[in-house]
Design a protein that fits this description.
single chain, 369 residues, mainly beta, four-stranded antiparallel beta sheet, globular, disordered N terminus
Length: 369
Amino acid sequence: MLLPMLPLLSLLCLPGVAIAQQDPRAQIALTTDIPINGVSITPEGRLFLLYARVDGSKGPTVVEWVNETAVPYPDLEWNSYNVSKDPATHLVRINSQRIGPDGQLWLVDVGSPAFGAPVILPAGPKLVVVNLTTNTVSRTYPLGTVILSTSLLDDVRFNPAANLAYLTDAGVPALIVLDLHTGEARRFLENDMSTSATFPVSAEGRLLHGSNGNFQYLYADQLEVSPDAKWLYYQPASGQLYRIETCYLNAAFHNASLASILSQYREPFALTPSTGGTAIDAAGNIYVSDTDRQNIEIIAPNGTRSVFLHDERLLWVDAMWVDSKERLWMPAAQLNRGTPFNNGTSLVVKPLYVFTVDIGSGPSPVDHA
């Protein structure tokens, strides 16, 4: 009975032979020739993508996927920034996009034209809001007053009841709190151990290096808000998830004394791995992509970690998305293989894929519509 297994066992022992590990639960939803590091889907099924362009390709970065075609969004002009155009009214470089709990599309503009390039101050960094009914920009929040030339404005989450947005700065470690009514923004926990990184980012078993040859550190990067809006979770891209009660952050916005001691109120939550992206569901489970092991981990509301999915195709899964059909969207962006981390050469293997997997839970009501 064991003899038929011998050829396979012998094959496994041969040097250089590897058996690809794929989980059948992970289904291919999109196939593309351009790295995608962000997906957003309306309850009606409209699909918005963020092209990372780390493969050296040129063109629009924010698109709506219509009839298997990428359509620049909100239009081609907003996606056509160059040095001759006003950075305040064009998308300089979008690092993340998501539909908010208000049903609008929110675009986080780093404000620098290339990874590692200085931020164009003051007009470059901003939060752009697009009305999905009119397909036009409804408001722009300038963020130049809270951004430095070496900042990397990374991502955004919301606290609708407080009318606040939370953002991360992965270039100069800090959390940013934005008053969505007044447009006023402030930095908190700047250079705190919870927003900083003690180790470089790692992917596929290799520490990343920037264009200058130095190890690549990405500070406060991923963030999520609990479904009851009590907690803000955040971490550097190299892992180590912290949390802080939002009531302290919210109060510190108007209380300088409290702002100066916020570090007393943050706490470690989970020893997460080097991470490409996160998402949170209605039950408060946080999904974390492990860029070294091609895993998707779940961090339960009590902080317990478990591996939910392993698939060798999950190469640097970036910003994930939970849709109304209780699926987790996972864009395998291969960012670590891109030009910023390989001396200007793209090692991205095409085609690239966006995967989905059923998770049995819908989106958090404070995260998106």
